[in-house]
Design brief:
CATH class: Alpha Beta
Organism: Kocuria soli
GO cellular component, one term: plasma membrane
CATH superfamily: P-loop containing nucleotide triphosphate hydrolases
Strand order of the largest sheet: 6-7-8-3-9-10
Oligomer: single chain
Shape: globular
Helix content: 25-40%
Radius of gyration: 18 Å
Keywords: ATP-binding, Nucleotide-binding, Transport
Number of helices: 6
Distance between the termini: 37 Å
Protein name: ABC transporter ATP-binding protein
CATH architecture: 3-Layer(aba) Sandwich
Largest sheet: 6 strands, mixed
Number of domains: 1
CATH topology: Rossmann fold
Pfam families: ABC_tran
Bound molecules: adenosine-5'-triphosphate
Order of helices and strands: EEEHEEHEHHHEHEEE
Strand content: 25-35%
Length: about 230
């Protein structure tokens, strides 16, 4: 479970400070997808960065399970991210020379507490099958489509069996149909693996697929969507 309570984040802005995230609270339960939408510059990526423990907020609480992450040192948050948080950015950012299977194994190899290689290989292969890449274990990024690369990216984020998934605009480099498939995949993996998933999207068509939806405006978060009602 991911819990944000009264989170505020500011950035330097000339002589003063700009409030990117303004007193935001939300809870993302295991096995559910929380969708966040909002205009450009409203603070969505800043909120994800805080939830992913990549930035410490000025004030407020960010809990992963029962761990208060704002009390941790940078090296402790790095360990927490590796072990308990999966992060998917807009672009897949795969390593060009590695096969799909090796992209996942490279993640599993990080850290002192990693599982034996045989186990990691089995998990990597299962995850690639789960994201629909049964026939592409040995493919390198240039041999994959944009949608397939994003599938590898998602499988890689799941490699360490994270409790929390942070997903920023996963469909922005894809056409609408491929985007729908990727959203469907994230929803089904979230349910199957029991992650608490926080996902930012500009595409309002995807919102009905999520368990809860919030809209950001000027750093503040409100429930539901600001989209005009259907006539
Ligand atoms: N590192 C930073 N330093 C200073 N200001 C920043 C920084 N990161 C973001 N901001 C500012 O914080 C506000 C929120 O930015 P953020 O990127 O979180 O918005 P967003 O909703 O994700 O936008 P987009 O949809 O365009 O990605 C913006 O005004 C932005 O200029």
């Amino acid at each position: 479970m991911l819990t944000l309570q009264d989170v505020t984040l500011t950035f330097p802005d000339g002589q003063s400070r700009h409030t990117a995230v303004n007193d935001v609270s939300l809870t993302a339960e295991p096995g559910t997808v929380t969708g966040i939408t909002g205009a450009s510059g409203s603070g969505k990526s800043s909120l994800l960065a805080v939830a992913a423990t990549l930035i410490t907020p000025d004030s407020g609480s960010v809990r992963i399970g029962d761990v208060e992450t704002t009390d941790l040192s940078p090296s402790q948050t790095a360990t927490l991210r590796r072990e308990r948080i999966g992060i998917v950015f807009q672009q897949a950012n795969l390593l060009p020379s590695l096969t799909a299977l090796d992209q996942l194994l490279a993640v599993g190899e990080l850290g002192p507490g990693s599982a034996p290689r045989g186990e990691r290989r089995t998990r990597a292969a299962q995850l690639l099958d789960q994201v629909g890449l049964e026939r592409a274990h040995r493919a390198r990024p240039h041999e994959l489509s944009g949608g397939q690369r994003q599938r590898v990216n998602i499988a890689r984020a799941m490699m360490n069996d994270p409790e929390v998934m942070i997903v920023d605009e996963p469909t922005s480099a894809l056409d609408h149909a491929r985007g729908q498939e990727i959203i469907g995949l994230i929803c089904s993996l979230t349910e199957a693996l029991g992650t608490a998933t926080l996902l930012v999207t500009h595409d309002l068509d995807f919102l009905p697929r999520f368990d809860q939806v919030f809209t950001m405006a000027d750093g503040g978060l409100s429930p539901g969507t600001a989209a005009p009602p259907l006539r």
